[in-house]
Amino acid sequence: MMESLSEETWDTVMCGTGLSQSLLALALSRSNKRVLHLDANDFYGEHEAALSLQEVDAWARAHADTEDTNQPSNRHVSSENDAGETVAKRTDEEKQTTPLISSGTRSSIFRNAQVWRHPDADGRGLSFPRAYSLALAPQVIYTKSKLLLQLVSSRAYKQVEFLAVGSFFVYSEGDIASGPALARIPNSREDVFSTQSIPARSKRTLMKVLKFVIDYESDEQKSVWQHQADKPLSEFLVENFKLEQNLRDSILAMTLTLDGNITLKDGLAAIHRHLTSIGLFGPGFCAVYPKWGGISEIAQVGCRAGAVGGGTYMLNTPVSMGEPNDSGEITLKLANEVSIRTTAFITSQQICSTTSHTISRLVAIVNETFQSLFETFTEGAPTPAVVVVAFPSGSLPDDAQAEPTVPIYAFVHSSDTGECPAGQSVIYLTMQTTPQSSHLLDTALAALLQATTAPADVLYKLYYEQATSSRQPLTTPQGSATVFEFPSPPLSLAFDDGSLDAVQEAWKLIMKGEVIDDAFMQFEDREGMSDDDDVYD
Amino acid sequence: MIPTKKLAVRGKAYKLNIFDTAGQERFRTLSTSYYRGAHGVILVYDISNKKSFVSMEKWFDEARMNANPDAVLYLVGSKLDKVAAGGRAVSYEQGKAFAEAQGAEFCEISSKTRENVKRPFVEVVDKIVQKPQLIAGATHSSKAIDFNMGSLTSSPCSC
């Protein structure tokens, strides 16, 4: 069987099952191209995977290092798969100790991973490991995103269950009498007017800002902001609208920016996306989240489409690149020294760029449902499964010493996401890495529990840091073949449509001019897939 | 991909969403998303191939680990047509005993002669409908967003 892999020249060998490669697999699923899709991990999703607690524990051990030190070892054992075929597998011992490998190099995207478990976790409700599915890089998807259009036009959306992202809240420390509080951000005209927490004068200001942003691309409004496009959004809001601090915090929170100094240009685009996404797929929400672990689920659906289209799938299979052969094809060595050939090797960049930001993430499982956060405020709005809490720069009790401060965001996921059992929630906190970030994320988590006055126990916590590779895909000719490397996932909290361009670029590379761009991700329902076409009774 | 089939069991019509494993089982790379919300899992081996029978234990483990704990498991021995030419490598009794040990129902079929092909589906549905707790946690929750809007005509099927 392994030998049969080396008999033909693959039109493409893809390494890694993150979102980009998996969307590419979906895009190629009707092309009749010969596709071999591998992943060095024994789970789907690569940097965007969603893991059970057992998998998280192993993953954290593999990513505990600060620095990129160990070289991957090459010890492998062979075993037989179900059909009696010989398959190379890493040993169990090795699986736990060696870092994850992709195309032969060690990934340095994730580091400093640490797991904490409540001493009485089981007594307080922590369920069995597979009852959880923790997303490594959770992102909300704005309803305006091109990703959703592609999932619809490719018919893949039918296999993903999308849930609504609900309210955005801003945390404030409050005064001694009232204590910390979460204020919901109004996001529409009606919403602004019905909100009682904002005084009338501020409402008028807020309406002016929202109106300006909706129309920000018009020539009239451009003349107001374009000459200062690179200055911080927050300064502009103060200078042009005399916006007071709490409203400014609300507006900034809508950008989901991890950098408190987001530029006017980027900030306006982000708020515009937020506002114009509301109501697009239904009343009262601006973004969606795929059930069971977010982006990871879309990656799995893409891979499944690839398999239905005839692609061959192998997990737990690291690859290393050999010399080009005489016909100019790329040769790749799988574990077990099996050699395969391809004209297009698609992988992802594993080495983090020295100029990139790093973000710190804290994922916490809490035995509380935070029901009040999941209320809806628009008639007919679906009950959300995700809400967003922003901690503006400098809003936490003790982060004054860590200057300059950056905002922290918490995504609260209810059990409707399928990421935890009923009665519990998963909270994903994210901020730009600072020397204090591990401590600050803990502080934010505690502040969130205090502000919601939830008598909650934190049952399990995972801390880690995430960097990025260079932001551009790399294309390298090898003989007559090509190596194409996707950038690692962006660090944004909302899905970034920019990453779809690289998928289309890779698709064109493999299709070699046989296609027109209009055909990208445009598929009919597969035969036998539509309802009731074969009644069998 | 989700072909839907209609099937009558005890005079009642049911609509089945059947997930094809699409060859992803070849290297044991079925994604966990296959098992999400599955009410029944049918595991098939080849009665003319001892190895494929032996591998069933691993597949039962995987199904049990990933699927709903109440999901109905069903074991099928395929290629029954090979018996005539003396090709049987696993006896009916072996299959039956193994299925019983796994708490699964069992039958042998031939896709070639169509013998028994409908039976596993009928029996699985029959078992599923006897477990109201299984149906209660339906695949598509009421909270899922319906993409049925404007130009996006088709909506996710929920049944």
UniProtKB/TrEMBL annotation, chain A:
<dbReference type="Pfam" id="PF00996">
    <property type="entry name" value="GDI"/>
</dbReference>
<dbReference type="GO" id="GO:0005634">
    <property type="term" value="C:nucleus"/>
</dbReference>
<comment type="similarity">
    <text>Belongs to the Rab GDI family.</text>
</comment>
<feature type="region of interest" description="Disordered">
    <location>
        <begin position="63"/>
        <end position="101"/>
    </location>
</feature>
<feature type="compositionally biased region" description="Basic and acidic residues">
    <location>
        <begin position="87"/>
        <end position="96"/>
    </location>
</feature>
<dbReference type="GO" id="GO:0005092">
    <property type="term" value="F:GDP-dissociation inhibitor activity"/>
</dbReference>
<dbReference type="GO" id="GO:0005968">
    <property type="term" value="C:Rab-protein geranylgeranyltransferase complex"/>
</dbReference>
<dbReference type="GO" id="GO:0005829">
    <property type="term" value="C:cytosol"/>
</dbReference>
<dbReference type="InterPro" id="IPR018203">
    <property type="entry name" value="GDP_dissociation_inhibitor"/>
</dbReference>
<protein>
    <recommendedName>
        <fullName>Rab proteins geranylgeranyltransferase</fullName>
    </recommendedName>
</protein>
<dbReference type="InterPro" id="IPR036188">
    <property type="entry name" value="FAD/NAD-bd_sf"/>
</dbReference>
<dbReference type="InterPro" id="IPR017230">
    <property type="entry name" value="Mrs6"/>
</dbReference>
<dbReference type="GO" id="GO:0007264">
    <property type="term" value="P:small GTPase-mediated signal transduction"/>
</dbReference>
<dbReference type="GO" id="GO:0016192">
    <property type="term" value="P:vesicle-mediated transport"/>
</dbReference>
From TrEMBL, chain B:
<dbReference type="Pfam" id="PF00071">
    <property type="entry name" value="Ras"/>
</dbReference>
<dbReference type="GO" id="GO:0003924">
    <property type="term" value="F:GTPase activity"/>
</dbReference>
<keyword id="KW-0547">Nucleotide-binding</keyword>
<comment type="similarity">
    <text>Belongs to the small GTPase superfamily. Rab family.</text>
</comment>
<dbReference type="InterPro" id="IPR027417">
    <property type="entry name" value="P-loop_NTPase"/>
</dbReference>
<dbReference type="InterPro" id="IPR005225">
    <property type="entry name" value="Small_GTP-bd"/>
</dbReference>
<keyword id="KW-0342">GTP-binding</keyword>
<dbReference type="InterPro" id="IPR050305">
    <property type="entry name" value="Small_GTPase_Rab"/>
</dbReference>
<protein>
    <submittedName>
        <fullName>Uncharacterized protein</fullName>
    </submittedName>
</protein>
<dbReference type="InterPro" id="IPR001806">
    <property type="entry name" value="Small_GTPase"/>
</dbReference>
<dbReference type="GO" id="GO:0005525">
    <property type="term" value="F:GTP binding"/>
</dbReference>
<keyword id="KW-0449">Lipoprotein</keyword>
<dbReference type="GO" id="GO:0005886">
    <property type="term" value="C:plasma membrane"/>
</dbReference>
